[in-house]
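Explain this protein:
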Amino acid sequence: MKAAKLSILILTTLLTNFSFSQYTDLINSNRPGVSRSAFSVGTNVLQFEAGPYILKEEHTPLQNEVSGFGADFLVRYGLLFEELEVNVQGTYQNDTFTDNRSAIPSESKRSNFKSFTIGAQYLLYDPYKNADDKPNLYSWKANRGFKLKSLIPAVAVFGGANFDTKDNPYLGPDVEGFSPKVMVATQNNFSGGWVYVMNFVYNRFTTDYPEFNYILTLTKSINEQWVVFAEAQGIDNDLYADNLFRFGGAFLWDKNFQLDTALTFNTKDTPSVFSVNFGGSYRFDFHKDKEIAN
């Protein structure tokens, strides 16, 4: 009996450390949603997250539509400190814009980066660091139940620069060159495999078309390999405002490789949006734990 209790104690302690440290034994990807985790990939970890998508938009009042494809990517690297990550993120799209207001529809081909951003993220506050998470050896329910302190989120900040080319069809007039992007990311890890992430983004605020985004993502692990998620994203600027919804899942192929898919849609017709994406995440793990003297 004592041996069984000791085994439970060791296992629970290991799981707690793996779940709430910056570096984890299993890949920790932001896909298939678009929100950012508050935690970095860990020092000396190089991670690639990318995937293609197909897109269909229809603007009923203006009688136009967009159909095409694209790809988004994110390259992450843990640098110097466990809390610090540098990254490069972008979305490239190629589509056909069709104007149906006349008897003979007119089409125009478009392609460019919808976004290309270089920046760094730093974890300001980690409620799980140095936390006293000793398990209750007499109650499985107490170990798996809701804990009030789990309402306190981890908090990270991001700062970066957009690089936008001239005459980009996806951006506002005269939006080109460098502009800033800042973000606050929070993350709550609840018992039972639930994770809740919030992002608040202020983008291109030195241009004539600043944009505010909020992203709310709820993820649930089904077992050791499968997770599902639901996400809501709000976008607000003078050119485009929308509320997008995403649902999907991911499959852990091995500890360094993940596959995923998701659907994106909205509930309006100015324009209506429907998108399907597939993707994957892979990491090159060069992480080494720091030696701590007794």
Summary: The chain has a mean pLDDT of 87.
